Amino acid sequence: MNIRQALKMALRSILGNKGRSVLTMLGIIIGIASVMTIVSVVNGQNQQSLKQFEAMGTNRVSVSLSLYDGRDCFQDLYNYCNSLGKDLVVGVTPSGYANATIVYGTKNSNAMQKNQENMFSENGTVRTDVELPPDLYYGSDQYAVCNNYQLEKGRDLSFLDIRQHNQVCVLGARAARNFFGYADPLGKDLSVNGYPFKVVGVYAEKDPDSAFSQDNVIIFPYTASRLLSPGQSISDFVVKAASREATEEAVTRLNGFLSGLTGNGERGWGNAYSDNQWQNTLNEQAAMMSMVLGGIAAISLLVGGIGIMNIMLVTVTERTREIGIRRAIGAERSSIVTQFLIEAAMLCGIGGIIGLSIGTVATRITGKLLVHMDIWPSIPITLGAFLLSVVLGILFGIYPAAKASKLQPVEALRAE
Amino acid sequence: MLIEIKDVYKIYGEGLESEVRALDGVSLSIDRGEFVAVVGQSGSGKSTMMNVLGCLDIPTHGEYYLDGTNVRELSDRELSRIRNRQIGFIFQQYNLIQSLTVLENVELPLIYQGVGADERRELAMEALERVGLLGRIKHKPVEMSGGQQQRVAIARAIATHPPIIMADEPTGALDSHTGHDVLRFLQQLNKEGSTVILITHDNGIAATARRCVRLQDGKIVEDREQEVDWL
Ligand SMILES: Nc1ncnc2c1ncn2[C@@H]1O[C@H](COP(=O)(O)OP(=O)(O)OP(=O)(O)O)[C@@H](O)[C@H]1O
Ligand SMILES: [Mg+2]
């Protein structure tokens, strides 16, 4: 018997018992598709949040500081940080949030508010081309280095802008696009709560894939808060340390400085803590998530595998008799094993490919519906799931053949 | 001699207290073109003997010469070839493959012979025609009556035109009329030159054979020529 006939024989056998064939494939399909979908979607979301965090930058120290007499304490913090030296602290800035209406030509930040309704595209992913109102921040001349922005055009906020209460601002890349389109924003005046603020610079894009992008920002000299948010005092600051090691050192020094400044809490309150801490927590969570996922994946595969094994073993008796009949009318051992091998490989291969296709579609649909992301299945997971179920299927598929072809034909015929 | 067994034993659980001697020192010779009935009560060892003669089983002790060759010395491949080309089996329980159609079942021994598709179909159709089943070749065995299934099994046995036909209780599950047809068919095959070995517990059925071998407790107790009851 040649290979072509063995192929035909296997095909006949598959088609001749459709119920058994479908059940076998179902185990493989479910195993592969579920593992692909679960792992790929959660993995994709995990990576997305890590990416966003990375865009924010590392080695940041958050400082809260407020004095009861309401005095502007940033100048003290600024001077102290700059006295520490660039190998310990590279920058310091307020991180206060402004609330104002921005108008330029026909563009109006209040009107952009309602665009939130259109945030999702028809197929469920987030749209990055919707004009959402920008986030407004008060910063120092070191805002960019503290928050991981690179200047693309014009100039950054300067020490003098702060000192002289200049009505200037720097735009994030998306805010620039939203208000100015392809026109050059440099030198143009934005109306901020009715006051003119000149655009002096634009930052490079760094967070292109998010809906609420860190590029949709406008940075004002923090001294502009007297004009824009009268009565609001800024109490949150960010210090950028030079390195991971420097972060710890900076936190210690800053806390010392803060307790001096506040007289150990008598004149106000102050506290410095490292963002790395919750970045570490986030990393740990991501690692944990991966482990849980690995577990889920393993269980799904196990369930799929048991399904495959079950259906194969349930039919062993039936198939053993069949093997007995085939042997009685003249099939050699090798033809039997070849036929069963081809049969199992065909079933598992077809099932595997169907599982792959369903898994891909399911990953993309779930990604869009659940986490609003454009997710493709992860290749190592897909490959792993595919190989494992196909190998399992083939092993259990040839098991009856391997077992029964060792018997005398009469013993195989007697199987019950 | 075509078939020759010498002092053959088939012992289950040899050496145990519960050992069963299904064949207990049997010697028998069958010549080309003979029609032999093997009779005996249930459990006397008839099926066991057919399995040994058909190379479906190997005896515990003793030698079996088929066409002068000692079967014990043959490889799996050679034994498969003998079952495929020399012997046509008709089993008591039909032993058709349920997932295949009637035609595919009958074609199966021809596939293992390596016969090409066209010739294979021709031979299978010819065999099915001889048993009068041409109308139902696309059906599955479960969709057919017992008598029809037995005819499919017969068609499968004769499709390769084997020189030896072995039938184990071929009429066991059939009514007397259908059984009659099957027996007449075996006589016909024998007339055409096949060697036929018919296994039965029924003396009336054994009367269709020229020679009658009687088994009892695994031993041959009678071996005689008889008047043939032509059907
Ligand atoms: N696999 C086996 N294990 C143990 N004993 C067996 C086995 N196969 C057959 N026997 C025993 O061997 C003896 C002969 O069995 P066999 O099937 O040859 O009888 P038979 O003459 O064909 O009977 P029947 O007319 O009922 O088919 C019986 O006693 C049976 O119990
Ligand atoms: Mg029997």
Overview of this structure, please?
The complex is a heterodimer of chains A (416) and B (231). Chain A folds into two domains: 3-50 and 282-413, no CATH class; 59-277, no CATH class. Chain A has helices spanning 3-16, 18-56, 74-83, 109-112, 143-147, 159-163, 173-180, 225-228, 244-261, 275-314, 316-328, 333-371, 379-404, 409-413; strands at 60-67, 89-94, 96-98, 102-104, 107-108, 135-139, 151-154, 168-171, 189-192, 195-203, 217-221, 236-241, 268-274. In chain A, strand 9 (189-192) and strand 10 form a beta hairpin. The mean pLDDT of chain A is 86. In chain A, strands 3, 4, 5, 6, 7, 8, 9, 10 and 11 form a nine-stranded mixed β-sheet that branches. In chain A, strands 2-12-1-13 form a four-stranded antiparallel β-sheet. Helices cover 55% and strands 16% of the residues of chain A. In chain B, the strands form two sheets. Chain B has a six-stranded mixed β-sheet, sandwiched between helices. A four-stranded antiparallel β-sheet of chain B has the order 2-1-4-5, with helices on one face. Chain B is globular. The mean pLDDT of chain B is 93. The A-B interface holds A 1-2, 5, 9, 12-13, 16-17, 318, 321-322, 324-333, 335, 408-411, 413 and B 51, 54, 56-58, 76-77, 80-81, 83-85, 89, 91, 95-101, 104, 108-109, 111-114, 156. The structure holds adenosine-5'-triphosphate and magnesium ion. Residues 12, 20, 22, 40, 42-48, 201 of chain B line the site of adenosine-5'-triphosphate.
